[in-house]
Design a protein that fits this description.
Elements: E1 3-6, E2 13-17, H1 22-38, H2 45-61, H3 63-74, H4 78-103, E3 106-107, E4 114-120, E5 123-127, H5 135-147, E6 150-154, H6 160-173, E7 180-182, H7 187-195, E8 199-205, H8 208-220, E9 224-228, E10 233-237, H9 243-255, E11 265-271, H10 273-288, H11 308-323, E12 327-330, E13 345-348, E14 365-371, H12 374-382, E15 386-387, E16 391-393, H13 397-404, E17 413-414, E18 429-430, E19 433-434, H14 439-443, E20 447-453
Parallel strand pairs: 5-6, 5-8, 6-7, 8-9, 10-11, 10-16, 11-14, 13-14, 16-17
Antiparallel strand pairs: 1-2, 3-4, 4-20, 9-19, 12-13, 15-18
The structure holds NADP nicotinamide-adenine-dinucleotide phosphate.
Length: about 475
């Protein structure tokens, strides 16, 4: 059975689920199609808003229970799970509050009589990853359900309980079966869903490999896709960045969710040799002081990574980095206790021909670089296939903004690591994908911006004074 909860903190298999049968999948799609044609988008916006706001309220009211489900599915510290749930509820509230304004038909002042109406497209497929199992679903469900689209959601196979819990929250809030369906689908079934004529768009958050496969399938079917893929976010530290605040921010950027975030700080790039040494010592001390333990115990500060497979992948990358001449300044080994725990790790002396130089390392591993000046920092920041988030630390905010514009990424934060709010668009460039989630931009990704142009009865189009 592909869909399974294996607690990463102790390796125990807690629950398994069968894949959905083809017949049940067909029935769910029929139900969504019916829901789209006869129910969900036809309801008044205020009613949809009430339902989505109610889902946010349920999440807030059941925070502890839901945080434990997240933690058992994928190993997150329970405090981090509470943070994720808080953000998920805020996203749902944001779209419940703003949809009416976003959906307001827009007059086109330069085209008298013409208006743009935001109409839903139909069934949208969401393929989502395990690392923020509620947030990822909320950032699709909030905007798309408020637009009036209906959703078939295929969550990652290691977070089935989160997938079910999120669907249950929506259902209890009043989202009908014809508007949201979680399906435990195989990859072949995902392809079949994309091929289905009634499915009008696909959004995937995950790896480059899965993104390319799903987007190719969507393209063959002439369907729009949005891809939120991997990243190797640089955190640039300029000469004038305040020392302690920068270290604290770098720790948040690196260690949130045990480093398993697309926008985690993956590469720290410090300008100046002396400051480089000081920052390296500070990061070694801060990362080295984290304590591995049960993620459900609030005193634990280091969570396991999501699975044995993920741990093995990280150990392989660390070995490959070492074999190619890099040094392991901190950690680098499995922690000797049950569960998939990796020592917080810092890799230095990574040459540009080292395989990890251009790879994403998805865990509690920091690639640390020291460069002579600002220009070298920007060149290094941009010398990867990814372009998701990034950050620059400096006391000079104008310089920070100037450098932000030189970094090839979808998002740059000055004096913070990359973070996310409902109001800020989220997404990348290069191999990190295309399209945006969150904010008004995310709301508009699967919308038919329908032009309706009205002329007086009997009028000819401008420029034609007679027919023909
Ligand atoms: P993944 O293997 O690509 O999995 C993501 C989702 O895609 C899962 O639901 C997975 O299902 C599904 N999937 C995988 N192969 C598929 C295929 N051939 N056809 C259809 N669906 C397929 O990603 P991951 O390695 O677990 O997740 C981590 C990656 O996601 C990292 O690269 C990370 O940076 C990226 N990420 C990006 C963002 C962002 O917003 N840009 C956010 C979070 C994570 P199964 O679980 O059943 O394989």
């Amino acid at each position: 059975m592909a869909y399974r909860t294996t607690n990463p903190a102790n390796g125990k298999v807690l629950e398994s689920f069968d894949n959905i049968s083809d017949a049940d999948l067909a029935a769910r799609l029929d139900e969504l199609d019916r829901g789209f044609r006869t129910d969900w988008p036809l309801r008044p916006i205020a009613e949809r808003s009430r339902i989505i706001a109610k889902a946010a309220q349920i999440i807030r009211g059941e925070m502890t229970r839901l945080a434990e489900i997240i933690s058992r599915d994928m190993g997150k510290l329970v405090s981090h799970a509470v943070g994720e749930l808080t953000l998920s509820a805020a996203i749902l509230d944001y779209y419940a509050d703003t949809a009416e304004q976003f959906l307001e038909p827009k007059e086109l002042p330069d085209a008298p009589g013409a208006k743009l109406h935001a109409l839903p497209l139909g069934i949208i497929l969401a393929v989502e990853p395990w690392n923020f199992p509620f947030f990822q679903l909320a950032r699709v469900a909030g905007p798309q359900l408020m637009v009036g689209n209906v959703i078939v959601a295929k969550h990652a196979s290691n977070v089935p309980q989160c997938a079910l819990a999120f669907e249950d929250v929506l259902r209890r809030a009043g989202v009908p079966q014809g508007a949201y369906a979680n399906v435990f689908a195989s990859t072949d079934q995902v392809s079949a869903i994309i091929d289905d004529l009634r499915v009008r768009g696909v959004t995937l958050t995950g790896s480059e490999k899965a993104g390319a496969i799903v987007a190719e399938r969507a393209a063959r079917n002439l369907k729009k896709s949005v891809l939120e893929l991997g990243g190797s976010d640089p955190l640039i530290v300029l000469e004038d960045a305040p020392f302690e605040a920068t270290v604290l921010n770098a720790m948040v950027g690196k260690m949130n969710n045990a480093g398993q975030s697309c926008v985690a700080t993956k590469r720290m790039i410090v300008v100046g040799k002396e400051r480089g040494e000081k920052f390296l010592e500070a990061m070694k001390s801060a990362m080295g002081s984290l304590k591995a333990g049960d993620p459900l115990d609030p005193s634990t500060t280091l969570a396991p990574v999501s699975s044995e497979g993920a741990l093995k992948g990280l150990l392989d990358q660390i070995d490959a980095a070492k074999s190619a001449g890099a040094e392991i300044a901190l950690g680098g080994k499995r922690i000797d206790r049950p569960g998939s725990f990796l020592e917080p790790t810092i890799i230095t002396n990574i040459a540009s021909d080292n395989p990890v130089y251009r790879q994403e390392i998805f865990g509690p591993v920091l690639s640390f670089y020291v460069v002579p000046d600002e220009a070298a920092a920007i060149a290094l920041a941009n010398d990867v296939p990814f372009g998701l988030g990034s950050s620059v630390f400096t006391a000079d905010l104008e310089r920070g903004e100037r450098l932000a514009l030189q970094i090839e990424s979808g998002m740059t934060f000055v004096n913070n690591p990359t973070w996310s709010t409902p109001q800020m668009p989220f997404g990348g460039v290069k191999n990190s994908g295309y399209g945006r989630e969150l904010s008004q931009l995310g709301f508009g990704e699967f919308v038919n911006w329908k032009l309706v142009a009205i002329s007086k009865a009997g009028a000819l189009p401008p420029g034609f004074d007679k027919a023909g």
